[in-house]
Design brief:
The complex is a heterodimer of chains A (454) and B (292). Chain A is mainly β and 454 residues long. Chain A contains five helices and 30 strands. In chain A, helix 3 crosses helix 5. In chain B, strand 1 and strand 2 form a beta hairpin.
Chain lengths: 454, 292
Amino acid sequence: MKFSLAPALALVVAAPLAAQTASVAPSPAADQGLTGSVSDETPWQDLGIAIPTFPTDADVPTQASAGSTAALGKALAQVITADLRNNGLFKPTGPDSLPQPTIGQVVAPDFGIWSGRGAEMLVHGYVRAAPGGNLTVGCYLYDVALRQQLVKGGWEVSPAEWRRAAHKCADLVYSRLSGESPFFDSKIAYIAETGPKDHRMKRLAIMDSDGANHRYITSGQALALTPRYSPDYQSILYLSYFNGAPRIYVYDVEKGTQRLITQSRNPTFAPRWSPDGKWILYSMAVAGSTDIYRIPSSGGGTPQRLTNAPGINIGGSFSPDGSKIVFESDRSGSQQIYVMNADGSDQRRISFFGGRAATPEWSPRGDQIAFTNIVGNLRIAVMSPTGQNLRYLTDSWQDEAPTWSPNGRIIQFFRTAQGSGKTSIWQVDLTGRNERRLPTPVDASDPSWGPVRP
Amino acid sequence: MSAVALRDGHGLRPEERAGLLLALAAHAGLVTWLALKPPAPAPIPPPERMTVTISDQIAARSTSPDPSAQAAPAVAPVLAENPVPAPAPNPEPQPQPQPRPAPRVAPAPKPVPRPAPALRPQPVQRAAPQPQPRPAPAKAVQQPARQQPAKPAGGGGSRIGSDFLKGLAGGQTPNARSKGQPAQDIGPAVRSALSGAIARQLKPHWVAPQGVDADQLVTVLTFDLNPDGSLAGSPRLVSQSGVTDANRPQAQRHVEQAIRAVRLAAPFDLPADLYSAWKHVASFRFDRKLSQ
């Protein structure tokens, strides 16, 4: 609004002056000005980004796994390149095929070189050994065509966490060029699957968003299922089956301890947090009828039953404001998606498209519900909370269990390969165009996205 | 062929030999036909792309210069020396308009008597109007009908009067000149062409950001240009529409990319003599459409 007012104000002010200075007076034609329009009709294009090696002022040895600061400069650029390449929006060129800039060019790039290479964007950075053994990493993003700096950032990290600096730089570039919240510097919890098909060992594991720093949390004695990060991302809720007895645990990521929330002899499924972290929803099959219960996350207390319709009611997920719960029920004959108030009242069906619909999950932004649509194949789809605007995001043989990224723009799911039964974690953005497989050391299922770290 | 060759070792039956010969002959025929085949017609060259500008600025009246108003009189010096004949042709055309209304009146009554005979069997309904037209048109029809052929024959000379060959009518009457728009006025057609030229130069640089519902975003910018086509000041945001909860993160980026496109497209290559029309671009719309 302030932009549109400015010319109008200028005209009002200029009008009395116009009589004195004839040259200022706008001619009638210029007064109206030219109007027109231009449309971008090209298919979506990946943005070319050049990421040369980060130079250093002095090549000194460091504690980091990548080696000296000079070697680290190249490794940083490689991690950033891998982050951006896997995203689908960009076409990054890594340090291996690019000339190395000098430390002085980091703040004053030689744009001629880069425009000649067809790069639209340029990432520069530097590595320096900070006092105390830490590392200082700077990151600059330049628009090559406009020859201007778009954004810059700098971090001091311990040598062991040097990859985080690269993820931070990738986050900076990604959020600046896409407008979305960053997500590379985050952790992912999932279920690592090993062993033969009929005797699967399922362990809870966490790793960085690019698959590095992989760590198993449970030993594999018990079957671990459906992990979910808490809203404050301090702990992970998961379901454990030990000798057929289900238990719901909360694992504290920082302390490395876990506490029991509830246990039962009845089959239990799909524990989920409430947005305020005070409640945990889960489903339990009692005497042939599966219903959704809630229990305080502090532990103890008697579970409160929210649904009482016959059949299977499962997989409750809170809306971000905590007022509603979306869940799956087969009360109409086949699996469909229903919405109810947080206290269990006003249950109504929202999915009325072909096939069955399962495993709904409410977006952290509240505007979408992701679910698995089963029409022959299993496909990940999203719809609005009223059940409108169905959109398919994937088209494969078996994609299931969608969960949201913290920024509500990317959905993680796991894909089962036809025939081999191998499972892997995939990500897809809300446009459905950019699909990416997360590298995991073993087969993986049930992903849950952790926080973007500060 | 290999199967046939294998069986050859066991000896060929007559029908097989005949079939083999037939196949060989057919193959030879095919090879010769392929060798002698007339060259395939050259592929039709794909039509060259052209940019079409659809303008919503349409004038009811053309503002392009009127050729008759601009044409100089053929014998202008003669007229300047002797202005007296000028009023002379004026009274002559005046009587012309007078007979013109007369023939116009004549065809109007014509149809009246024609329906009259048709209406005769129904005197009860239109008894009053019938007698009135009958006598009046009877005279009126005959008189103008005779006048029509007579007038052009007799008064035809008055149209091509003494001003004939002295130049076009518009050149002689000073009023005709003032009627036409001045050539300097830049009409909608020219403006449309100019904005089309700007759009063509912006297009290679305009890349809309990606995202959910990002194709609904529309950014309108305003910017000023110097006479050499370069930007005067920086482009400014006039308005943005189509912002939803889903594409809000891309809204600012959309504006930024639009401004980037203008800055990269400058300096614009536009006709210098029309600078007054393109010095200020009041509102330029940036959006995304999938042509598929």
